[in-house]
Design a protein that fits this description.
elongated; alpha/beta; 29 strands; 7-stranded mixed sheet; 449 residues; single chain
Amino acid sequence: MSSSAHRDTGHDLATAGPGPDRLWSVQEHLDDVLATVRPLDPIELNLLDAQGCVLVDDVTVPLSLPPFDNSSMDGYAVRVTDVAGASGEFPAVLEVVGDVAAGQADPVAVGPGQAARIMTGAPLPPGAEAVVPVEWTDGGLGAGPVAGMRARSLVPEGDRGHVQVYRPAEERAHVRAKGSDVRSGERALAAGTVLGPPQIGLLAAIGRGTVRVRPRPRVVVLSTGSELVQPDERLASGQIYDSNSFALTAAARDAGAIAYRVGAVTDDADTLRSTIEDQLVRADLMVTTGGVSVGAYDVVKEALAHVGDEDEPGGGVDFRKLAMQPGKPQGFGSIGPDHTPLLALPGNPVSSYVSFELFVRPAIRTLMGLPDVHRPTVTASLAANRALTSPKGRRQFLRGSHADGSVTPVGGSGSHLVAALAQANALIVVPEDTESVEPGTEVEVVLLG
């Protein structure tokens, strides 16, 4: 699957834009990302392979559902006049002329004084006007109301004889009308619909075996840092477990992508560059975490800052500072022969996750071709014991717990507070020009779940 459609090659991040000291706003960075990423090209997929994908075209119903009048109950197909006034004391006695089973091509006809045993989903036979549930009858046994029909294999003669009906039925009772679900020519699904189990079931019900969709984007996530150890391994002095790659891979899948996690790469620029090049074959989007700040071991900048300057015209990765907290250092651009988009996120766990929500998730949703790529936002009353403080000139994103129109901060503002992040279901947004937010103030909240 080519990524060549992802990037506007006239938009050169490696050469365009201001110098390294410029402070980008959150919106400017997001606009840059979304102006560069393009939806994946549509493909035709089998139904089950299309799960989670976005429908490209409206789907019109070729035949009505259900395609014929059919019974919603196991019982007897009857004429209304034949059961009028039926009661337990004076049951209507009807001749049983046969069975009508689901899938039966030529059902028997029901005439005056007759009934046909009918199963759920079976077509209403000619002449019948309603269905009486078997529980309203003696099941042809002559011993009062029954709880159900006996299996045909046990009583093959059950489709003949007589049945007593103890209750009347109105016209069309227990009959599912042709087209009562959806009619031929109507729109079954609109373009832009994400195909889940119900939508796939509907497509199958109207006879569609394949469907034209935008495929789920393939996202490769890798973290950097010689201090990172995989879970279940023994920690040595100075080492920590790699949590970012797990969190971001899970977040990419939650956003709708097919995500691949790569084990942590050591702080070596050549190794990182080689790993990224190896992963490009299965990537529509690359995401790295760590190594984008100003330290001596920030290898992502070292490995990618000049990629594209000579070998890949129109490509390259731009590293910039954003007016936000957490997540000030960010990188964005494209790499490889197909100009695969790459977003380089900071390494602190909270910074990494917040950056993913703000920039990577919208990019994934854009690749999918969704019309709305953003998390929902609401306003809520700040429930806190004291005022929140925020650095001037920075848009701050604080973890919060949102419920019933109010939001409570969870944990502090530190970028390393993974436990607090796990308790949050929202981000509290403090604008750049606000340095203090008093309890009870209405604040903007980004809902994460």
